[in-house]
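Q: For a teaching session next week I want to show students how multiple molecules come together into a single three-dimensional assembly. I've collected the sequence lines for a complex. Could you give me the predicted structure tokens for the whole thing so I can convert them for display?
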Amino acid sequence: MESAASKELYRVINLRHRRGNHFELTIPDLTIGDGESIGLTGPSGGGKSTILSLLSFLEDPHHGKVLFGGKTITDNDSLSVRRSVTLLSQDPYLLKRSVYENVAYPLKIRGETGSLKGRVFEAMDMVGLKPDHFAGRRWHELSGGEAQRVALAARLVIRPRVLLLDEPTSGVDPANALLIKESIQTHRKKYGTSLVIASHDSLWLNSAADRVIKIYGGRIETIESANLIPGPWAKEEKDLYRRNLSDGRCIYSVSPPGEKATGILDPSEIIVSLHPPSDLSARNILAGRINRMTSHGEDRSIIIDVDIADLPLTCRLTRQGARQLDLLPGREVWLIFKASSIRWE
Amino acid sequence: MDYITNGFIEALRLLFSGDIEAYTVVFTTIKISSLSITASLVIGVPLGFLLGYYEFPGKRQIRTVVDTLLALPTVVVGLVVYAFVTRQGPLGGMGLLFTIPGIAVAQTILITPIVISLTATAVESLDRRLRETLMTLGARQGQLLLASIMEARHAIAAAAVTAYGRAISEVGISMMIGGNIKWYTRTITTAIALETAKGQFALGMALGIVLLTLALLVNIMLVALKKRS
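A: Of course. Below is the structure for the complete assembly, covering every listed component.
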């Protein structure tokens, strides 16, 4: 968390926000630095979109505060803040106008005159839409990926201070996704934009974000890359409970608070071995194949994702440890952790 | 049967020879309906927008009343307006009876509910994401309203075309308020009624052809607009 830029942009304090009857987002304290790039991951319905909506000041939190530049946002300055923060929602809406008019609209309502055309074309170029080819297209003459890029260009054109992105690459093909990712990076480099990106694409977030925040059930998980193990948990013996995996194996935990409880397993708590261990007291010994390896954080520790039935697990190793084991994607490894290593909220 | 065929041939002759009586009637009709559609749009679009965009107590009741007025019989509007603008009526001093403005006023009463109702529906069916999108692009309140109307423009134009179609084809109001005065307040529909009663099928048919052509044009526009919205 030390990577936050020196100046504070957002500060979320004691926030509680309800959605419907069953969901509440709770953030005791969260700071986002000016110029920082934050990734949000976690299961759908976990609260990512709600956070983005609150950060974009489209709605006020039911309880607590969202400070921007150290200040609470009052009705008086909400317009100027809304004009420096912009949100690209998951399924963006295009105005029933030409592509050019869609991208020019945010400039026009800001009363900007002068060379709109230059700015619009620059934004279109940035998202890979050739101006002479696309400027005159109507909103209904675009593919899903093109529409997504037009919507992104309409956000980039105002050179926002903060760009909030809700699953910007979901539902578009890989070529469009790549263009979207590149344009966001280019824009950030050029204008120092702060980013908050909600995405399932953890590979992209690990490279594009200074830090990644995991959110589930309306709460922020403080451990990076924490494994979330959802129930149902069945009683095995006394305090020991079992969660069946799709291939017949199972994971053991101690005293879950409820049948449906989600367990949290710190990636550093998992021991990785190349051989099946013997004579160990640890309850959970699971074989699986390494799916992906990434390096992460200040200390450049190695994060490996191991496929185990329906529940991929993430483990964290030091660089040295990973080198000693000579780990490679595709290699079979044994993961070892104690039943009591699974914590509960 | 001959009189129908002869009437049809005579009708085409009247139209293509530029018969002054037939064309006067056509232009009177267009003049009146243009006045009434303009007035009904000026009144109806803002009211329809308010009705569709905002939530307020009594909204549903108002909506029911407006929707009921869609089926307003032309003769009832004619009767009520007549009662007001006749010499003894409360607005008798304005001299609207048997004049073009008189017909236009009554037609405006007839078609404004159509504009209000269809505009409200158009605004209600705007995408739920529109408001959030405009907010996040940095729109102020006024810009939000303007852009919302712009998004609904095709549906609002379709409302106007529907209302215009009703105005040019109605006969009750033109007859009762206009009085079917030759060279002055005679419209296509009142002329057809009169000529048919006189047994003069040719002029009636010629005007019928013009009316159908106008209705066809209106419908073509409507289809094109619905496709866009």
